[in-house]
Amino acid sequence: MSKYCTNCGQSVRQNDRICPSCGNNLALSNKGNHEVSESTSAYALIGFLFPVVGLILYLVWAQERPHDARSAGKGALISVMVASVLVTLASIVFIAQV
User: Fold this and answer.
1) In sequence order, what DSSP letters do the residues of 27-67 get, joined into one string?
2) Do residues 25 and 48 both lie within one domain?
3) Based on the domain organization, do 4 and 32 belong to the same domain?
4) Which helix (H) or strand (E) element contains residue 18?
5) CA–CA separation, 33 and 71 (whole Å)
């Protein structure tokens, strides 16, 4: 399992004492590292299928589970982007047929 900084959510090596991304002191913080759960990709899928749920999970977990929160948020963002592209393409096809 990988470890992540709870301050910024970036991946850190097992023996890092300071986060290379944000400078958070991982050695002094008892919550400095976060074990990534096996279901992180499931949170991304939930965020993709249900963007509102993904956004809520992102907001609720932003501090205590940053990696899972980012996965859910990314899934929701990708879902909204895909929907926007599909609506745009459908609009172009509809206008071209008229």
Assistant:
1) TT-TTSEEEPPTTHHHHHHHHHH-HHHHHHHHHHHTTT-HH
2) no
3) yes
4) none
5) 17
Of 18, 79, 25, 24, the C-alpha closest to 71 is 79
Model pTM score: 0.61
Radius of gyration of the chain (CA): 18
Confidence of residue 30 (pLDDT cuts 50, 70, 90): very low
Tokens 């890092």 label which residue?
16
Q: 31, 7 in Cβ contact below 8 A?
A: no
Which amino acid belongs to residue 73? G
pLDDT confidence of residue 38: 57
Which residues form the domain of 54? Answer: 39-98
Please say whether the beta carbons of 70 and 58 come within 8 A.
yes
User: Which of 13-17, 32-36, 49-53, 59-63 bottoms out in mean pLDDT, i.e. has the lowest?
Assistant: 32-36
Which residues have a Cβ under 8 Å from the Cβ of 43 and sit 6 or more positions away? Answer: 54, 57, 68, 71, 72, 75
